[in-house]
Amino acid sequence: xxxKSSISLSDTQDHFARSLVESGQYSSLSxxxxxxxxxxxxxxxxxxxxxxxxxxxxxxxxxxxMISSADMxxxxxxxxxxxxxxxNAGS
Length: 91
Prior knowledge:
Elements: H1 11-22, H2 29-63, H3 69-89
């Protein structure tokens, strides 16, 4: 089903859309706008999915086990020591 709508474009947008039609990339201004809206819909859906995944990750991390600041500092120091040892081993 198609719906007729009246829209306003800036001069720049109109010029660009018409150039796409004139170059043969699209058959009409409607096609250009439909394609643009479809891309925007896909982008919006992808961003919503990404945001939902990030929220799930944060929720899992908040609900998961916590370690103290001192334990985290110790782990970081151990990681640094291992990196330094592996770096010096090749010398």
